[in-house]
Design a protein that fits this description.
Largest sheet: none
Radius of gyration: 7 Å
Number of helices: 3
Order of helices and strands: HHH
Distance between the termini: 14 Å
Structural class: mainly alpha
Strand content: under 5%
Low-confidence stretches: none
Shape: flat
Length: about 20
Amino acid sequence: TAGYHVPLLASPWSYSVYRGS
């Protein structure tokens, strides 16, 4: 999950993946 913390800041779509929505 930590791997998504960085990309989600650069890519809004990664935020959705991080949330698992």
